[in-house]
Specification:
EpsI_type_B_pred, Methanolan_biosynth_EpsI, two-stranded parallel ribbon
């Protein structure tokens, strides 16, 4: 058999296998569970209550319009406790994680709004229902210094950053399921970053205690105790 013919046959086989693999990894089913962020997250819990006259996120109009377009639901609130400590909460929910939540991680949103990003760190928060993997970073613009904690739930799993998101998406692609996803972000305005993370931890623990057991899945998926 002539060499060019062998090469052509090999290329044809490779292209066929590639097409088959792409078809196999294209999700064919989509979860259709219903979620209402407004009712899922209580307006008052523990020592925290909504501070109504504030915005949880300041972004440029283009970025905000894009966020509202690609997500099924969003929720932005600022909470204040009896010590006067404030935490900004932002949640974005997407029914189709294959195309939605990877677009606007906090690093990207804040960069698009003119912030400098630093101290990006992967860590964990221990809670009564399990250990939550989280990403922490600091966004700075002028005199505004904003320590941030976030995670992204894809289906049952929590991911931090682009690589973990892609691994989870590929794993679901192999099962031909389309997972839903949720971006959970809390932040504070402070130059004391360690104190900010202490406040955020306290807020998160109180929130998880206030959310009903079955509904916690929407926020954190299936945690390992």
């Amino acid at each position: 058999m002539k060499k060019p013919l062998i090469v052509n046959i090999a290329l044809g086989v490779f292209m066929t296998l590639s097409s088959a693999l792409a078809w196999f990894m294209t999700p064919s089913t989509q979860e259709q569970e219903k979620i209402n962020l407004e009712t899922l997250i209580p307006g008052k819990f523990g020592n925290w209550k909504i501070e109504p006259a504030t915005l949880a996120l300041i972004v440029d109009p283009y970025t905000q319009k894009t966020i509202e377009k690609i997500y099924s639901q969003t929720l932005s609130r600022t909470y204040i406790n009896n010590k006067g400590e404030r935490v900004m909460l932002s949640i974005a929910y997407g029914r189709n994680q294959i195309t939605d939540l990877h677009v606007h991680r906090p690093e990207q949103c804040y960069l698009a709004s003119g912030f400098d990003i630093s101290e990006v760190t992967k860590t964990f928060i221990d809670t009564s229902i399990g250990r939550i993997p989280v990403m922490r970073l600091v966004a700075k613009q002028g005199i505004r210094n904003e320590p941030i904690t976030y995670w992204i739930r894809i289906g049952n799993s929590i991911t931090r950053g682009w690589i973990e998101q892609k691994i989870a998406a590929i794993a679901y692609g192999m099962t031909r399921e389309v997972p839903d996803g949720l971006l959970f972000r809390i932040s504070t305005i402070s130059n004391d970053e360690q104190d900010s993370y202490r406040i955020q931890n306290a807020f998160l623990l109180d929130l998880l205690q206030a959310v009903r057991g079955d509904d916690r899945f929407w926020l954190v998926g299936k945690l390992t105790p």
